[in-house]
Amino acid sequence: MTPAQQSLVEQLRARFGERIALTEPSDVEPWLTDWRGRWHGQSPAILQPRSTDEAAAIVGLAGEPGVPLVPQGGNTSMVGGATPAADGTALILSLRRMNRIRSIDRAGRRVVAEAGVILQALHEAVLAQGLRFPLTLGARGSATIGGLISTNAGGTQVLRFGPMRALVDGIEAVLPDGTIHDGLSGLKKDNRGYSLDQLLVGAEGTLGIVTAARLKLVPPIHSRAVAWLGLASPQQALDTLRALEAGTDRIEGFEILPRESLEAALKHIPGTRAPLDTPHDWHALVEATADRADAEPPADLLARLLAPLIERRLVEDAVISASEAQAEAFWRIRDSLSEAERAAFGPATQHDISVPVDAMPRFMAEAAAEVERAFPGTSASGFGHLGDGNIHFHVRAGSRRGPDWLEREGEAVQRLVDDLVAAAGGSISAEHGIGVMKKDELERLSPDRVRQLRAIKAALDPNGIMNPGKLV
Ligand SMILES: Cc1cc2nc3c(=O)[nH]c(=O)nc-3n(C[C@H](O)[C@H](O)[C@H](O)COP(=O)(O)OP(=O)(O)OC[C@H]3O[C@@H](n4cnc5c(N)ncnc54)[C@H](O)[C@@H]3O)c2cc1C
């Protein structure tokens, strides 16, 4: 521990007790490596406030000596955003003990939750009050509200309700100078200049510590149905989505996957079964919901809207879930694709990218062809949130595979994919953020944008204590 870190820990313990800081290596160690095990950092301590005042004291005391802080929630970042640097100069600031739901406003459909509330716990708490928080993702058992806000997380319901940014109605945060920003008043109209709340969404812990948020809720799902479609191409999938959207505003999810991804899941994920009898080059999973008992049942809605599309041969074949268990089984295939692809195809580079929705089918075809031409023997394709213009584009090593393929060619593949995304007017990070993983690429491809982000960062965090080395 450096003298400045030691002094900070001692002052905090004197004020708030021993538990404000964890310094035993066995307590700290599990939080030094990211979820996927790609980045390993060092830190002598984890600071763990229980209240906004404690968080403000930590940041206030860290500012003067310039002790860097790495905010951390569930540590499920896909881009190394919550991992401290390897030099041990930063302390981890964990929000996990700030895990209270402060209030639920049933009539106004709002919840105020602290940053450390785990997404699944939030789902359960609001459901018990007859409401729903309409954002979900695979890491819901660990990801926290503070982390979801700080990465502007997406997930599978963005199509209807938007990403985290659209669901945030106000934020309470500790800014880098130790002051508390209180944006929880619930004002519907507030035009006092820049929105600090929205600035903190997607800031990846570089502008302050989110301590609590006021979030929008929607009515709970009364019933749902999931259709599995067989399709000829991503363009047909997109045309299908547009046709469905013209007929209803109750489509919550629209995910696509190619034939080889489905085959990988069927082969490597126990208990999965092909939803359709015949093979198709592409598949889509469509979820429709009803939030009222007197609404047209989702299965009937999907059947009614899909029938003419099947007749026109836009959709080659379709099956609609007949039970909740079958709906779950369809989603299980989708949710297991990363794991299935790893087992089936070995090493691959993975790119969380977006382009304008209507440009996606063409991008997928052209980018795959371009990558396969530049790296003969590889195979490339994407799956995921077509309706959001966001796919997870994977380049598999194929015949080039070897134990060190990722080290040898991963960076070159990454640069080519990012160049293609930039040329298509897209984003090299659709929903996972920049963290350490994409920092250099962001700067290479968007130098003007990075300059502007840095100006904002310098204005709010002149000592550079908030999550240094991430994003900018
Ligand atoms: C299995 C799996 C599936 C996933 N699926 C999706 C998906 O579908 N869509 C998607 O968008 N993401 C997905 N993710 C990524 C991940 O869940 C999100 O990035 C999540 O929002 C991170 O939350 P967290 O609490 O774990 O934050 P952490 O990983 O701890 O931190 C993430 C970033 O936020 C900062 N941060 C954390 N808490 C705070 C705070 N209170 N104040 C300020 N900064 C803070 C950290 O410094 C870091 O930069 C997935 C991850 C996994 C492991």
Question: How would you concisely characterize the structure shown here?
Answer:
The chain is 36% helix and 19% strand. It has helices spanning 3-16, 25-28, 52-63, 119-127, 145-150, 158-161, 164-167, 196-200, 234-247, 259-268, 298-311, 324-335, 337-345, 360-374, 405-423, 439-445, 447-460, and strands spanning 21-22, 46-47, 69-72, 91-94, 101-105, 110-114, 168-174, 180-182, 209-216, 223-231, 251-258, 282-290, 317-320, 348-354, 379-385, 390-396.
Order the strands across the largest sheet as they lie in space: 5-6-9-7-8
Number of helices: 17
Write down how many β-strands occur, each being a DSSP E stretch of 2 or more residues: 16
**Distance linking N and C termini:** 26 Å
Structural class: alpha+beta
- Small-molecule binders: flavin-adenine dinucleotide
Cα gyration radius (Å): 23 Å
Uncertain segments: none
Strand content: 15-25%
Helical proportion? Answer: 25-40%
Mean pLDDT: 96
Q: Can you summarize the main beta sheet?
A: 5 strands, antiparallel
Shape: globular
Would you give an account of this structure?
With 472 residues, the protein is an alpha+beta fold. The chain is built from 17 helices and 16 strands. Strands 5-6-9-7-8 form a 5-stranded antiparallel beta sheet. It has a 4-stranded mixed beta sheet with strand order 1-2-4-3. It has a 4-stranded antiparallel beta sheet with strand order 11-12-10-13, sandwiched between helices. A hairpin with a 4-residue loop joins β5 and β6. The chain is globular. The site of flavin-adenine dinucleotide has 36 residues, from β3, α5 and β9.
